[in-house]
Amino acid sequence: MIDTSKHKGLRKKLVDKLIQKGIDSKEVLNAINSIPRHLFMDKDFESHAYIDKAFPIGSNQTISQPYTVALQTSLLKLKPNQKVLEIGTGSGYQTAILVKLKAKVYTIERQHNLYRKAIKKLPILGFKPELIKYGDGYLGIKDYAPYDKILITAGAADVPKKLLLQLKIGGEMVIPVGKNIQEMTCIKRVSKNKFEKEMMGKFSFVPMLKNTN
Ligand code: SAH
Question: Which residue, 93, 141, 209, 213, shows the most beta carbons closer than 10 Å to its own?
Answer without folding.
Answer: 93
